[in-house]
Amino acid sequence: MFELLGITPQALTSQVLIGLINGSFYALLSLGLAVIFGLLNVINFTHGAQYMLGAMFTWIGLTQLGGWLDMPEFQLNYFVALLVAPLLVGLLSIVLEKTMLKRLYHLDHLYGLLLTFGLALILEGLFRHWFGVLGNSYPVPEVLEGGLRVSGLFLPYYRLWVVALALIVCFATWYFIERTKLGSLLRAGTENPRLLQALGVNVPLIITLTYGAGCALAAFAGVMAAPVYQVTAVMGSNLIIVVFAVVVIGGMGSIAGAIVTGLGLGVVEGLTKVFYPQASSVSIFVIMILVLLVKPAGLFGRTR
Questions:
Q1: Under a CB-based contact definition with an 8 Å cutoff, are residues 66 and 73 in contact?
Q2: Interatomic CA distance for residues 18 and 6, integer angstroms
Q3: pLDDT tens, position by position, 238-291
Q4: pTM check: above 0.85
Q5: Cα–Cα distance, 248 to 155 (Å, whole number)
Q6: Segments making up each domain of the chain, as ranges
Q7: Contact call for residues 12 and 3 (beta carbons, < 8 A)
Q8: Count of CA atoms in the C-beta half-sphere (13 A) of 148
Q9: Are 27 and 171 in contact (CB under 8 A)?
Q10: How far apart are CA 36 and CA 55, in angstroms?
Q11: Phi, psi of 149 (to 5 degrees)
């Protein structure tokens, strides 16, 4: 049937794979946003910049750090960067939360949005000044080079790794928040923080760690994205609007909604490039409009 439309099965499968890869990044980024909004009620516009920081820190560690230290042979391992870069971004985010963001929790959401948007512009401006606007890249780790050939289709190992690891991290995050005791404390802290604090739980610490963890998820996505996309200072701003649309479609604050919608919309976007390429850049926003008309709280959201 697809041959009648001039589309080969290989091309269709290739676009589905590309859609899954993009959807993996959408899911990770929207998951971090959903965690922060769902548990802290903060619209975190620095999320795109934190995604960029994860990619930038990894690129620096893998390609530039040896020269800076005057040790050309030194090179950070990619798998080490998967842990170190999110940790660094998480710690930086904790500092931002303790020094700035926590002062706005009792105010309207708009103040937090404006603050985080301003911080994102500052971070992007600094890295644009230091590293320019041209894209940087680094190669895929040696152990993940190559790929599989299935029915005439080449499946790179690294792309398969990205999809598999994103699914594992998304499921682990959902399980932690929805099925563990600490996750129940996080959710209770958002519903009635005064009662939880009266029971001896350090609610401010939970809030700070939750914000840091949500931002670390964005950095984690950035580390995985760096071998796939060009690393630039504006890579986050080019993606964050799409990710916000994904979060709105899934339901603001819904962990499951962020994961399922992110992956699903990535595939939809990939298929749109096959059947109607002109609409691929707006397909997600068209779906967002339709969903909001039918269910304003989002597919998995609940009316508050």
A1: yes
A2: 19
A3: 788 899 999 999 988 788 999 999 999 999 998 888 888 888 888 999 999 999
A4: yes
A5: 32
A6: 9-234
A7: no
A8: 10
A9: no
A10: 21
A11: -110, 115
